[in-house]
Amino acid sequence: MDNNTFQDYENEIRSLEEEIQLLTEMYEDRQQESTFFSDEEILMARRSFQGEFHGGSKGLESPSDLKAQLESLETDLSFLMKFTGIQFTNHSKKTVERTRNRTVRKHRLSGNCHSLSFQLEFQLLEVQNKENVSAVITDLSIILESGEDSDVSKFVSSTEEHGNLLTFFRSLSSYAEWYEHRRCTFLHFK
């Protein structure tokens, strides 16, 4: 066997090992997510769900009612996308750390707002107390298509520092709408 063939086999083996490692991590993440709740909590949630669905199900007793509710939610989502101009094209999340009362997940979002593309990457730290769950955004990173504008760069830096996604999306919607108007106006005069 010559060296090239041997090297090709080694590269294929490394590739397969990396794929096995990735699949193992995905499997462990799924296992962690399923073992996060105790058997007692799962049983209580199941009883609660069954009680709501069978006993006091607020009019959602038939599949046609569920279908109508789903169509209503899709209509609402479509309205919000048209109203804000924000469309998410990709989302992924990965559990980084999980303990009994603390979970850290890494999220990646990408999408468009009018004609601007954006990408977000952040970690969501969820801490569960006896009564409630609190969530904090950390390590926020924003990539915005029109980052050449110094005011936008300052805004993005400030948002990354404070981790305020609501303010970011509100401002992005307004800025992207006017960015599109300016772009069309300049094209008109060219």
Observed structural traits:
single chain; alpha+beta; 4-stranded antiparallel β-sheet; 5 helices; extended; coiled coil; CENPP protein
Oligomeric state of the chains?
single chain
* Overall geometric form: extended
Q: What structural class is derived from the secondary structure elements? A: alpha+beta
Number of helices: 5
Coiled coil: 6-33
Keywords: Coiled coil
InterPro entries: CENP-P (IPR027801)
Protein name: CENPP protein
What are the SSEs and their pairings?
Blueprint: H1 3-35, H2 39-54, H3 63-84, E1 86-98, E2 102-113, E3 116-128, E4 133-144, H4 150-162, H5 165-189
Antiparallel strand pairs: 1-2, 2-3, 3-4
Q: Your description of this structure?
A:
By secondary structure, this protein is α+β, with helices and mostly antiparallel strands. It has two domains: 51 residues; 106 residues, no CATH class. Helices cover 57% and strands 26% of the residues. The chain has five helices and four strands; from the N terminus they run αααββββαα. The protein has a four-stranded antiparallel sheet. One of its GO terms (biological process) is CENP-A containing chromatin assembly.
